[in-house]
Structure formats: structure tokens, C-alpha cells
Amino acid sequence: MKFVIPGGTGQVGTILRRELSAAGHDVVVLSRNPSGPGEVHWDGATPGPWAAEVDGSDVVVNLAGRSVNCRYTPANLRQMMDSRVHSARAVGEAIAAAERPPRVWLQMSTATVYAHRADAANDEATGVIGGGESGVPGYWGYSVDIAKAWEREQEKAGTPHTRKVALRAAMVMSPDRGGVFEVLLRLARLGLGGPVGGGAQYVSWIHDRDFARAVEFLVARDDIEGPVNLAAPGPLPQRALMRALRDAWGIPVGLPATRWMAEIGAFVLRSDTELLLKSRRVVPGRLLEAGFDFRHPEWPEAADDLVRRLRGRAAR
Fold it and tell me: What is the pTM of this model?
């Protein structure tokens, strides 16, 4: 099959491109800065010659959007919103105009759409959408607004011959450089891999190979559309996640960090504490109901696998 991946040069796109290519699929990446074979230029906002790649393709997986690993300034939040909404609109317009539209459009979304909570898990049917929680920074609601606007742009696109799925993805854990796993492991190796702000907040995650397998699964299942949680069935508190990561690498101790310490660290790293402190307890209700088999459902084993792969690459 031919896959077109707008915004496919980032970490998640690199994972998906690698796994799909290894499975024998034809993969075309749309990028603002194409740099090699299989990459085509687009501006992420307006129709252009790139739309010819969509016409006649089998699957579009839109991953485009400004990275969330930044300071949540008003300007950055606006760029995060615009880059997601405008790219989704452009993809929808290209599909609508295609003579041979793809049969499925997978649109990246985020598990951040759900409320900050630890009392119960959020699945697609009963999960609580965030934005109105008390006791959290007000700007966290803007991240939820971004997610809702992202999904709404796909929903309203006039693509009657193309099935649409919104991928409410948790943190994708991979041994590749530049991803969240590398950041967490660096903190652990520096002795800073302890609980943050008490560590009770839940972390939802998905192993990189399960992410790619879930994409292929959703492509094959013509009966699934709408929002789907791409998260392992075993979310866990942040303190337990970091303890398992330390165990996987062989690090005995991880110093804890208070909320104000996390604020300082996030400022130094040019990131934001929402990524550390928001409780994302998300489970893959629809994937499990449809019979998807997670190869890495629980974090301790997944962390062992990721560490083993990382060390294997370093040894080569």
C-alpha cells in the first residue's frame, strides 16, 4: 500500500516510516524541508503540488504539528494550535479534491484531550474530556482546546469516500534520539529519575512498535472510525514509571523533585511542567475491544526492551 505521511520527519514519523517500509509499503513523507528520497515539499497549510501524492494513495497519516516540547508561551501555544489546525485542513482539502481519494485518513491527536485525573482511567466511551478541572494551571485548558480543534478539523472535512480515525496517542516510547524516552533516561542517568511533585500523577505511554502495529491494525479494520486511544493498557504513576526505568538501566537511586524544582528544570530545558505533572490515565478501550494484541502492554518489560535495543545500537 501507499502511505502518505504529512509531518513525517519527526520522531513518531521516523518510527512509522521505518516500520511501514520494513513491512514492504511505499511511504511518502511530506515535509517543509525535504532532504532525501521519498520526501516531498509542502508548507503544512495550503494545497499545492504535494496533493498529487495523496491522490491515488491508500492511506494518509497526518502527524504534522509544532512540537509540544517547548515553553508554553502565548506565541508557542498559538503556533501549536495553528500548525495542527491548518495542516489538518489542508490534508482534508487534498483528500476532498482527489479523483482517487485514500480509503482511510489517520489524523494524529493526543491523549492530553482527557482530564487531569488519577481516580479512574479514561477510555473513548467513558473518558472525561479536560479543560474544566479545578486546581490546575489555567493554561492547561488550552492544550485541550488544541486537541479538540485538531479533531474537529478532521471531523468537518468533506471526505465521504475516506474513513477517518483520530489517533489519541499517548507518549510514544522509542530508543531513537530526540524522543521522550531519551529525555526520561537522561534524567535517570543523572540521578534525577525520582518522583516529580509526589509522583502520583499517571503516565500513559505506548511502545514504538505497538504504535506502528496499531496504525496498521486500524488501516485494516474498515469498521473503526472516530477517536481511538493509542496507549498501552498499563498506565502507571510517574514514580513507578521512573523506578522501572531505573531498574532497566541499573540505577539504584533517583532523587525526587518538588513542583517548584520541576518548574526550574522545565525552564532550563525549555519545556513545560504540564508534560511532567498532568495526570494522563488513558487506556485503549477500542483497540482492546477490537482484538488488538499489545506486544508490550506493561511498562517494566517495555522499558527492558527499549534499554536493550538502545544498548545494542551503541555497541554496533
Answer: 0.94
From residue 188, how far is each of 35, 122, 192, 232, 241 by CA, in Å?
A: 34, 28, 5, 22, 11
Percent of the chain's residues with pLDDT above 90: 73
Q: Name the residue with cell 479523483.
A: 99
Residues of the chain with pLDDT under 70: 69-71, 259-274, 316
Helix (H, G, I), strand (E, B) or coil at 107: strand
* Dihedral sign from CA coordinates of 312, 184, 214, 105: negative
Decide: residue 155, CB within 10 A, 0-12 exposed, 13-18 middle, 19+ buried: middle
**pLDDT (tens digit per residue) in 17-43:** 999 999 999 999 999 999 989 999 999
Distance CA 304, CA 109 (A): 27
The pLDDT tens digits for 144-177 are 999 999 999 999 999 999 999 999 999 999 999 8
The cell numbers describing 306, all together, are 527499549
For residue 122, give the 3-state DSSP assignment: strand
Q: Which of 83, 98, 104, 103 is nearest to 10 (CA)?
A: 83
Q: Report d(CA 85, CA 105) in Å as an integer.
A: 15
Strand residue runs (E) in the chain: 2-6, 26-31, 39-41, 59-62, 104-108, 163-169, 171-173, 202-203, 205-207, 226-230, 236-237
| 40, β-bridge pairs | 30
Buried b (16+ CB within 10 A) or exposed e, 111-136: bbbbbbbeeebbbbeebeebbebeeb
Q: What angle do CA 161, 164, 166 make, to 5 degrees?
A: 170
The amino acid at residue 225 is E
